[in-house]
Amino acid sequence: MSIDLVDATDTAAKPAVFVSYSSRDRDIVHPLADWLLGTGIGVWLDRDQIPAGKYFGTEIVRGIRSAKVVLLMCSPHSLKSEIVFREVALALNVQVYQMVPIWLSRMTGNPVDAYPEQFQLALSHVQCLFTDGIPPSVWYPQLIGILGGLGVRPGPIPGPAAFPAYTVAVANRDWPRVVELGTALLRARPGHPNLIQGVENARGWLKHERSALLDRIRANPTPADWEAYLARFPGESLADHAKFRLAADLPLNTLGPFLIRCDRSTDAGSVVAGAIARLRLKDHTTALQTLERTRAADPMNAAAAYYLALGLVAATGLRKLILERLERVNELLRLARSLAPECGFPDLLTAFLAREYYEPRRMRSPFGKSDELFQQAMDAGLTPSDYTALSQIIS
Q: Average pLDDT, stretch 280-300?
């Protein structure tokens, strides 16, 4: 992995882009200016370039004279602004012909007709960028392309001396630290491509390391391996499905640290994962109480509905599964299937119930035949080992 860190003078010191706008549009303009600065493009913005005590007129003239491109932020406010009018007039007078009108509001008809008459001839053949109804994630990069065609391109991020901790983390392959520091730097320099790439690369290495460590835990399970995982990824929050998988897959002798971590977390995914672990440890009462509370707090939580159904079956046992409880189990499974139709786990449990409960009693399963349900679960990405794990929880 390589991260582009070079020694360079901050390009913001010599702004190549002058932004002409109305202060009433600051909520749109300022984030754009921050994003451009984050890419290494120098931006002249009154917010940043007029020191206290300085005459703003002089600073504006200097900013326009040194700029390669003027961004004219067009809106009903700016096109009626006397200051914007003077800025554009000065830009034309000092021969800054590279001007990019960016329309912030809806435009109907010919945009040239909306310009003040004095500018219509000069701007009649200038490329415009229309942004109304388009997210910044789309039109910001479009603007970068336009500026590149005008000779203004993103610059390098400051060199190692500016970010010593980040550079040390990269050198040490401390990917969690790289992600932490890189994310913080992106808040100060939003959108910078080199920083974005560095953080993405670090996350890729983290994903690889995590997968390798989890494979080792499953292949040679020891509490030490699980503790090593927790030490390596102390602040990482696993996706809910990954937590559920771990709760179902981890060997019993490694469930202790996992359960402690789930109990320390308050998010619903960790709570449900902890309940799954308790089902495997045969602590059915605590698991059911936890899942019932989660269901009450979030009736639309598909995982809570599914695992509550599983817990009811496991706690009762197939031999004692009376009709009243069975009806509730089936109701929960229908709800889980409707809330997460792409998830195969409800099909897996209904296949199990059909095969182990209904069919031996020559009863008709409300969900269909066991073989068909099992195949639906496999088609959703599950495996026979998932069926085996489910069987072990219930038995």
A: 91
In angstroms, rounded to a whole number, what is the distance separating the alpha carbons of residues 337 and 340?
Answer: 5
3-state secondary structure 344-376: CHHHHHHHHHHHHHHHHHCCCCCCCCHHHHHHH
Asked if 307 and 335 touch (Cβ cutoff 8 Å), the reply is: no
Instruction: Give the helix/strand (H/E) hosting 74.
Output: strand 69-74
| Strands of the sheet with 99-103, listed across from one edge | 43-44, 17-20, 69-74, 99-103, 129-130
- Return the higher-pLDDT residue of 125 and 54: 125
> Which value, to the nearest 10 degrees, does the dihedral of the CA atoms of residues 318, 361, 356, 342 take?
-100
Could you tell me if 29 and 19 are in contact, meaning their C-beta atoms sit under 8 angstroms apart? yes
Supply the pTM of this predicted model.
Answer: 0.44
The full set of domains in the chain, from first to last, is 11-149 (3.40.50.10140), 163-220 (no CATH), 237-394 (1.25.40.10)
Q: Taking CA 326 as the corner, what is the angle to CA 321 and CA 328, rounded to the nearest 5 degrees?
A: 135
Q: What's the Cα-to-Cα distance from 281 to each of 16, 384, 394, rounded to whole Å?
A: 65, 22, 11
- The residue-averaged pLDDT of 87-113 equals 82
Model confidence over 137-164: pLDDT tens digits? 889 889 988 998 888 888 765 544 456 6
